[in-house]
Amino acid sequence: MTTANTLTIKLVRSPIGCREDHRATVRGLGLRKINSVSVLQDTPAVRGMINKISYLLQVI
Predict the structure, then answer these.
(1) Does residue 26 contact residue 56 with C-beta atoms inside 8 Å?
(2) Which of 18, 37, 40, 42 would be 22's cystine partner, CB 3.0–4.6 Å?
(3) How far apart are CA 60 and CA 6, in angstroms?
(4) Which of 3, 5, 6, 13 is nearest to 38 (CA)?
(5) Stretch 3-7: mean pLDDT
(6) What is the pLDDT of residue 4?
(7) Is this prediction's pTM over 0.85?
(8) Which own/partner contact pairs does 48-53 have at CB distance under 8 Å and 24+ positions apart?
């Protein structure tokens, strides 16, 4: 479902036990529980957040 201007991301791993700033990044991306999905604009800021916590996410 990835179009030219949006990215769909899914939280596949729990942020429990991760660094506090990584947990804040998960919340900043609009993700709460495992398997929650968020559709975001494809901007450099969002790309940076995804790269920071890529081990917790799956880009759909």
Answers:
(1) yes
(2) 18
(3) 11
(4) 6
(5) 84
(6) 76
(7) yes
(8) 49/25, 50/7, 50/9, 52/22, 52/25, 53/15, 53/18, 53/22, 53/25, 53/26, 53/29
The pLDDT tens digits for 12-38 are 999 999 999 999 999 999 999 999 999
Share of the chain above pLDDT 90, in %: 93
Which of 48, 37, 44 is CA-nearest to residue 2? 37
Token digits for 28? Answer: 């900043």
Up-side HSE of residue 17: CA atoms within 13 Å toward CB? 3
Instruction: Answer yes or no: is pLDDT of 1 > 60.
Output: no
Distance (Å, whole) CA 2 – CA 40: 10
Return phi, psi of residue 24, to 5°.
-65, -35
